[in-house]
Amino acid sequence: MNNLKRKLLVTLLTCSTAFTLFGCGDKTADSQGANAPGTNSEAAGTKQESTKQQESVLPQEGTERQEGAAVSYPLTVTDSNGETVTISAEPQKIVSVAPNLTELVYALGAGDLLIARSDYCDYPSEVSEVESVGTIFAPDMEKMVSLEPDLVLASTHFDREAAAKIQELSIPALTLFEENSMEGVYTMIETLGQVLNRSEQAADCVETMKTEIDGVAEKVKDAAPPTVYYAVDFGENGDFTAGGDTFAGTMIALAGGDNIAKDVSGWSITLEQIIEKDPSIILIGEAMKDDFISHPNYSGLTAVKEGRVYGIDNNLLDRQGYRNAEGVRALAEIFHPEAFE
What we know:
Strand order of the largest sheet: 4-3-5-6
Mean pLDDT: 82
Structural class: alpha/beta
Distance between the termini: 33 Å
Shape: globular
Radius of gyration: 20 Å
Order of helices and strands: HEEEHEHEHEHHEEHEEHEHHEHH
Helix content: 25-40%
C-alpha cells in the first residue's frame, strides 16, 4: 500500500468512528460489490460524540413502517447524526458518496437509480460505469447539485455543513452509519430500504445476514477462541486496530476470536501492547500484509514467526452493510478452520 493510501486510511481512522454476498441471497443478484482502494470504508480513529444517535436511525413517530408495504411519502426519518430528513417522493435519482451505502443501494435492487458516486465506491463492479463526483471527503458539490438528485447518501466522512447546504437546496441528504453493533447495521439496512421503498428487500437482507451469522456462531460455539490482532494500520503512522467497542471488534467476537484489543476503546493501540499480548493470529488488509511481515517492529511476534498473518478483504469488516455476514464467516474460517471442513 503506497504512502498516499496509507495516509488516507489514517485520516479516515482519526476523523470518524464507524466501520455480506451472503446478504440478500439470490433475490438481489445485482448487489455483489467490493471496497475502495486505500479507504477502508467508514473506519474510525477516535470515539466521537457525534455518533451518539445510533439508535435513532429510525422513522419518526407516526411514520408507516410495515414490512413489505408500500411507503407513504413524504417520509421523515432521523439520520445517524440526529438530523431529521424529509424525503418528499420516492427517490429516482440517487448520489452516494459512501461506499458502504452504495453497496446497500445495489443490495436492495436499486442500483439503476444511482446517478453518481464517490471515487471510492467500487463495489459491485458495475458501479464503475456510474459517474463520479470526487472524493468521499470533498466531493464536487457543484457537480452534485447540477445532476439534480432527489437523494444524497453519505456516511461519517461527509461534512455536516455540506449536508446542510444540500438540504437548503431542497435535496435530502441522508447520513447513515453504525459504530458499534450488528443490530445497528440491520437498522441501517431497514431504514435505507424504507427510504427507497424497498422494505421487503431490506427485510430479506437482514434475515439472510442473521441466518448466516447464527450459523457461524453455532459452528464455533464450543471452540477455544484464539487471540487475534486486527492490524488496521501500522508503522510510521502509529498502530491502529479495532477496539472492543468498535464494529469490527464485534465481528471478531462473533467469529469466535479473542480480540487482544477488546479492552481498548476506539482504534489506537501501542506497539508495547501488541508485543505484550503477542496474538496467535494477525489479520491485515491483503495489500499491507507483506509490508507488515517485513517490518522490524513486528518480526518478533509469534504469529509472524509461525506464519499466521492472514491477508483479508478488510472491506468485509470495515464497511457496514450486507457483506458483513460474509466477513464474520471469513474470520471464523481463519480462527476455526476445523469447524468448516
